[in-house]
Amino acid sequence: MASSPKRIIVAPLDWGLGHATRDVPVIHHLRAAGHEVILVADGRPYDFLSQRFPDLKIIRCPGYDISYPKSDQFMVHMAKSGPRIAKALRDERKAAERVANETGAEIIISDNRLNFRSDKTKNIFITHQLRVKAGMFTLAASALHRKFYSKFDEVWIPDHAGINNISGDLAFLKRPKKNYRYIGPLTRFSLVKTKMDSLGKQLLFMLSGPEPQRTIFEELVIAELKKNPVEALILRGQPGQPHDSEPIPGVRMLNHLNDEKLAAEIGKSYAVVSRGGYSTLCDLTASNKKLICVPTPGQTEQEYLAEYHMKRGQMVSMRQGQFSLEKGLVLCESMQPFYMQGVSGLQGVIAVL
Asked: Which pLDDT tens digit goes with each residue over 268-302?
C-alpha cells in the first residue's frame, strides 16, 4: 500500500561525491511517489545536487570537511582530526533539529551523516558499512559507527543481502536486524537509457574523492598518459569548477558530466580507471567494462574492496604509489569485465514510508 505524501529531507555526507550521486535514484523515486524532497548538503555534493535538481530546495549545512594527508597515514590523520570531527557531529545534530523545525519535515534520510537526525522525525540511515575496515582500529571503528546508526529508525543498505554482493563482508550479515533493509546497489545510471556496455575505443579516467589526493592522482594520470599515448578522457569530478581542457593531444579533460553524457562516455570506453569508492563501483556494475582500481592511499575500505574484487577476477587493483598504466592495461586482459546484476528493493521501502 502506497504511503501518503510526506516532506522528506535527503542529506548526503560531504566525503567526495559518491554519497550524493548514489542518492540520485532515492530522490527520483521519492518524487515519483509524490513526496516533497528537500536537500541538505555542503561542498561538492551541494554543487552536484544543485545542478542535478535545480528545482528542489537545497539547504547548505556544513559537513565534516574531511581531508586526506599527502601520505598514506590516513588513520593517524583521522585520529588527530578527532576533536574537530566530534564538534562537527555535535553541530550536525543541532542543524538537523533546526532544519526539521524550519521545514516541517516528517522524515530525514541521512546518507552516512552520522548524527543528522531529529527527535521530531522518522530517521533513516543509508550505509554499506555495517563493518568498517580500519586496519588495527577495525573493531573500535565498527563499534563507533554502529553506536551512531543504531539510533536511527531504519538502516537502508545499498547492496544485495547475499554473499554475491558488491561490498563483500562490509554489509553482509547472516542475521540482519528487523529494521535493516537491503535495497540493492544504488546507482545514478539506473535512471538513464544510454547503453554503457557497448564496445568502445577510449580509456576513461574517473577521478573522485577528497583533496589533496584527488589532485595528486590527477597529476599522476597525466604523467602516465604522456608516457603511454592513448585516446582518453579524464573526468575530474569537479562540478562547478571551470577546467575543461586538452592537456595532451588526444586526451580530453572534463570537469563534470551529467548522467546521460557520462553513461555515453563509459559506453565509448574499453576500460575504466577509477578509485575504489563504493558508489563508483555501484555505478560501474552495469558497464561491463574492464576496470583498473587505484584506491585512495590509506583508505582501507577502498583497498579492501579492490582486493576483494581482484581475487574474484573482476578488476585490477593497483596502489597509487605503484600505478603504471602500461602494467595495468596488461593485467586487465586476464580480468573479467566488472558486472553484477540484482533486484533493487528501493521502490519497496519507499512505498511504505
From this structure: 999 999 999 999 999 998 888 999 999 999 888 99
More confident: 347 or 83: 347
Together in a domain, 128 and 40: yes
Q: Please state, in angstroms and rounded to a whole number, the distance separating the CA atoms of residues 166 and 282.
A: 7
- The type of residue at 348 is G
Number of independent structural domains in the chain: 2
The tens digit of pLDDT for each residue in 102-123 reads 999 999 999 999 999 999 999 9
Cβ within 8 Å of residue 156, ≥6 positions away: 109, 124, 125, 126, 127, 181, 183, 349
Within this chain, do residues 26 and 175 fall inside the same structural domain, yes or no?
yes
pLDDT digits (tens, 9 = 90+) for 214-254: 999 999 999 999 999 999 999 998 887 766 667 788 899 99
- Residue-wise DSSP of 34-88: T-EEEEEE-HHHHHHHHHH-TTS-EEE---------SSS-HHHHHHHTHHHHHHH
Q: Is residue 75 located within the same domain as residue 174? A: yes
Same domain, 91 and 18: yes
| pLDDT confidence bin for 158, thresholds 50/70/90 | very high
Domain that holds residue 236: 191-332
CATH of the domain at 255: 3.40.50.2000
State the DSSP H helix or E strand holding residue 332, giving kind and residue range, or none if neither: helix 325-332
| 171/145 same-domain check | yes
Rounded Cα–Cα distance for residues 244 and 250 (Å): 14
